[in-house]
């Protein structure tokens, strides 16, 4: 019995031990699974727990590679510059890859420009742990070792860095995979990143085998779906240099001047470069200044070389100086963000681009569509193609009086906004009052929009004839109504802009030049004092304190009144009686609104307000405001019905 008892106890003990071991194994497995969930799944440098943005994707194979490794794409936003139709036409596997990404919950966006992605509606409020741009390339516009093409590539990458640096989570990283052999090493990624407060933290070899399924594509030309030779390449990892970013921000805020360095007028980028130079010149601030000392020492050593080496050195120094100071054409620098309005054959824009060696800082617009422009101007197609090759943004159908509302311009700010020889069209003799009124409305509408699209210290430039009757346009007065003050007026010389062709732009002779005669470039800046006064006046008015002595009378008209008598006769009265309350028609000069330098008020509305009216009937309310203001350039008025229906109802 004792033996049996002992055996039974031993068996029970063994079974208990085995049960405990099974429970321990289960606990270990659960713990490993929890640990895996906490650590996430990794594909080389990327984790399933990272919020990842991929920029400039070709056939989306890199994005799909990460998604397959993670088992999900819910943390991935993958983008391409081309639209969906172009992508699927260019790349044989793109459609399948995109479908698989969407099935795995990826966000796929098309038409995303790496140099403007921060402004995109789906990206503007998001931040990421990793932002990836694999093998950025501005297109095959020549040999890779040509200076102009290297500049295009550098402009692309710098624009990407500028946007990406504003879209990072704390401790986030920007990754650029890039060839490291010549001439690609001349892109100087680290230098470009440094100007955007990004510091290189690591540079590791890029191995395609680490990303199963990834296919690198040329992306341009007839062989766009063919792979390109990778050769020696690396993944460059950058992080925000918080100390440097803070120093740059503080220096720019204080508007410091560096000994021997002057800020470029009106250019935030110019200020930034000056601050960067200051940081370089003070080693105690930035460790990278040691590299500058080393470069200076190398230049001194090279003075002992032969004449050919001296010439190469001088050319290199000149290139570096141009990159720091920018290239200038009269009043315009390659470091300015420039908007050109009302272009004809785009020859003025191309003149600036040729002088700068790049058009990446230029947004150029026309009122007419692309088809009309190329039909009206013999050189327009060629000029536009050249601008696009040089990195310009070309927009058509942009109304100067409403450009602030354009989807591609509404979030942009510029250092220079240029409107050369504005003209409302040939609708009579230039000295007639009605045509002068049309011209003035056009210019005032332009000023109203441009004044809201300027960077700090930015300028609005209007080149204009100064002889009669053009002097009766009174540009300075129109600008003043939009809080702009004239800072300088200089002679306009066509010879200063090689290749520029001034065009009539209207009628049968639209491609013919017009006689310039005496003309000047008028330069305007925001009058901050006046803008503040207007803002305060508007605020006080909304609070019930009228800043102007305006007679705010309401007039009642019997319900049987005609449209001529009752301009707002279809509205119900506010008090619910049979009388209709309307605004006066402003036909009596004695009832005209008092005018101050800052603009005109009527009731709750100001001529310097941008006003949208919705659901208008016979548009009489809009007309009432327009008459009170003396202009309708600040008014956008809409109806639900189309024009024919509105007109038939009035009749």
From TrEMBL:
<dbReference type="InterPro" id="IPR019446">
    <property type="entry name" value="BMT5-like"/>
</dbReference>
<dbReference type="GO" id="GO:0070475">
    <property type="term" value="P:rRNA base methylation"/>
</dbReference>
<dbReference type="Pfam" id="PF10354">
    <property type="entry name" value="BMT5-like"/>
</dbReference>
<feature type="compositionally biased region" description="Basic residues">
    <location>
        <begin position="7"/>
        <end position="18"/>
    </location>
</feature>
<protein>
    <submittedName>
        <fullName>Heavy metal-associated isoprenylated plant protein 41-like protein</fullName>
    </submittedName>
</protein>
<feature type="compositionally biased region" description="Acidic residues">
    <location>
        <begin position="301"/>
        <end position="325"/>
    </location>
</feature>
<dbReference type="GO" id="GO:0070042">
    <property type="term" value="F:rRNA (uridine-N3-)-methyltransferase activity"/>
</dbReference>
<feature type="compositionally biased region" description="Acidic residues">
    <location>
        <begin position="24"/>
        <end position="37"/>
    </location>
</feature>
<feature type="domain" description="25S rRNA (uridine-N(3))-methyltransferase BMT5-like">
    <location>
        <begin position="53"/>
        <end position="218"/>
    </location>
</feature>
<feature type="region of interest" description="Disordered">
    <location>
        <begin position="1"/>
        <end position="39"/>
    </location>
</feature>
<feature type="region of interest" description="Disordered">
    <location>
        <begin position="286"/>
        <end position="328"/>
    </location>
</feature>
<feature type="domain" description="25S rRNA (uridine-N(3))-methyltransferase BMT5-like">
    <location>
        <begin position="339"/>
        <end position="504"/>
    </location>
</feature>
<feature type="domain" description="25S rRNA (uridine-N(3))-methyltransferase BMT5-like">
    <location>
        <begin position="612"/>
        <end position="644"/>
    </location>
</feature>
<dbReference type="GO" id="GO:0005737">
    <property type="term" value="C:cytoplasm"/>
</dbReference>
<dbReference type="InterPro" id="IPR029063">
    <property type="entry name" value="SAM-dependent_MTases_sf"/>
</dbReference>
């Amino acid at each position: 019995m004792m033996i049996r008892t002992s055996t039974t106890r031993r068996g029970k003990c063994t079974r208990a031990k085995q049960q405990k071991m099974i429970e321990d194994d289960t606990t270990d497995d659960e713990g490993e699974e929890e640990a895996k969930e906490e650590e996430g799944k990794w594909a080389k440098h990327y984790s399933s727990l990272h919020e990842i943005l991929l920029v400039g994707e070709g056939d989306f194979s890199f994005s799909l590679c990460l998604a397959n490794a993670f088992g999900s794409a819910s943390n991935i936003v993958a983008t391409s510059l081309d639209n969906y139709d172009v992508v699927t036409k260019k790349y044989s596997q793109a459609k399948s890859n995109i479908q698989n990404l969407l099935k795995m919950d990826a966000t796929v966006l098309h038409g995303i420009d790496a140099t403007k992605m921060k402004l995109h509606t789906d990206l503007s409020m998001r931040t990421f742990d990793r932002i990836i741009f694999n093998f950025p390339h501005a297109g095959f516009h020549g040999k890779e070792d040509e200076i102009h093409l290297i500049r295009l590539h550098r402009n692309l990458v710098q624009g990407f860095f500028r946007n990406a640096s504003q879209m990072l989570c704390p401790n986030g990283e920007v990754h650029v995979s890039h060839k490291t052999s010549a001439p690609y090493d001349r892109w100087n990624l680290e230098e470009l990143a440094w100007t955007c407060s990004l510091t290189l933290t690591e540079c590791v070899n890029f191995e395609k085998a680490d990303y199963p399924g990834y296919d690198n594509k040329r992306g341009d030309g007839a062989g766009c779906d063919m792979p390109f030779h990778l050769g020696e390449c690396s993944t460059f990892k950058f992080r925000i240099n918080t100390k440097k970013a803070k120093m740059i921000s503080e220096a720019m805020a204080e508007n410091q001047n560096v000994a021997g360095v002057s800020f470029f007028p009106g250019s935030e980028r110019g200020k930034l470069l000056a601050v960067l130079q200051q940081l370089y010149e003070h080693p105690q601030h930035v460790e990278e200044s040691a590299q500058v000392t080393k470069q200076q020492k190398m230049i001194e050593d090279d003075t002992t070389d032969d004449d050919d080496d001296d010439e190469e050195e001088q050319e290199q120094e000149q290139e570096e100086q141009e990159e720091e100071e920018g290239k200038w054409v009269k009043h315009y620098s390659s470091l300015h963000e420039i908007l050109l309005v009302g272009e004809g054959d785009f020859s003025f824009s191309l003149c600036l681009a040729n002088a700068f060696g790049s058009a990446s800082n230029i947004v150029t617009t026309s009122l007419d569509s692309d088809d009309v422009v190329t039909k009206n101007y013999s050189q327009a197609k060629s000029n536009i193609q050249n601008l696009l090759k040089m990195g310009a943004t070309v927009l058509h159908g942009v109304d100067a009086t409403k450009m602030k509302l354009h989807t591609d311009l509404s979030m942009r700010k510029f250092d220079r906004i240029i409107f050369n020889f504005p003209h409302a069209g040939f609708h009579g003799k230039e000295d007639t009052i009605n045509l002068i009124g049309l011209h003035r409305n056009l210019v005032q509408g332009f000023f109203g929009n441009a004044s809201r699209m300027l960077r700090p210290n930015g300028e609005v430039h209007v080149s204009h004839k100064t002889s009669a009757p053009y002097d009766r346009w009174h540009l300075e007065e129109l600008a003043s109504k939009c809080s702009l003050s004239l800072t300088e007026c200089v002679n306009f010389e066509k010879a200063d802009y090689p290749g520029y062709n001034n065009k009539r732009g209207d009628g049968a002779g639209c491609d013919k030049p017009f006689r310039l005669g005496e003309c000047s470039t008028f330069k305007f800046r925001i009058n901050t004092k006046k803008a503040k006064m207007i803002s305060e006046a508007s605020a006080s008015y909304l609070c019930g304190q009228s800043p102007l002595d305006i007679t705010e009378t309401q007039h009642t008209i019997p319900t049987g009144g005609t449209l001529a008598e009752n301009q707002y006769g279809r509205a119900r009265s506010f008090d619910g009686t049979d009388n209709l309350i309307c605004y006066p028609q402003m036909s009596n000069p004695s009832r005209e609104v008092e005018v101050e330098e800052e603009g005109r008020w009527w009731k709750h509305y100001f001529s310097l307000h941008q006003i949208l009216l919705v659901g208008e009937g016979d548009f009489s309310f809009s007309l009432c405001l327009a008459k009170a203001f003396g202009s309708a350039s600040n008014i956008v008025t809409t109806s639900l019905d189309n024009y024919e229906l509105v007109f038939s109802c009035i009749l």
